[in-house]
């Protein structure tokens, strides 16, 4: 769901309320600028309610990351059937649309900035995001290539790295530099299709 609150995994309504508040507070004030005391004071949620579910700010921020990426995880899992029932081109387009639909959204970019900034002080936060975010895309790409390409002929791990670099480098740079606005669904599809065609031609010599 682009530019909106990501769907949360099953949690108590109070815990979800805490995460609702925390998500917006972190995005507004940054990680360093956020405090549980201030969060409780401005939201009307008691500090005790927050500490009932989370031991501190770091654990709360990790939970925010998990929830923000919950829909992304579900959509990546839903690609399994597409990978097995379509050709390579269609599978790559579907995966590209899924990744671009999340990564180019304003909300995702704002969250990533917070994660990268805090990762300089707490590397495990960055590692946590990498495992549930980028690593999932690499793994899913390798699954695509495992179905459609002979491992004796192609290095699936290398291809996954090249493909994501081709897909994301320019668009993320343009978004972060404010050269490009958040793309529409139609623009995402057009970009996904163009990148897939370029990849098939350049790396696999297919037209």
Notable features of this structure?
Arc Repressor Mutant, subunit A, disordered N terminus, 2 domains, single chain, 207 residues, elongated, 0% strand, mainly alpha, 11 helices, Tetracycline Repressor, domain 2
Could you explain the architecture of this structure?
By secondary structure, the protein is mainly α. The protein has two domains: 13-66, Arc Repressor Mutant, subunit A, CATH 1.10.10.60; 69-203, Tetracycline Repressor, domain 2 (Orthogonal Bundle), CATH 1.10.357.10. The protein has eleven helices and no strands. α5 (70-85) runs antiparallel to α6, α6 (88-103) packs antiparallel against α9 and α9 packs across α10 (156-176). Residues 1-10 have low confidence and may be disordered.
CATH-wise, what's the superfamily of the largest domain?
Tetracycline Repressor, domain 2
Q: What is the name of the CATH topology of the largest domain? A: Tetracycline Repressor, domain 2
What is the CATH class name of the largest domain?
Mainly Alpha
Strand content: under 5%
Mean pLDDT: 91
| Structure annotation, total helices | 11
CATH-defined architecture of the largest domain: Orthogonal Bundle
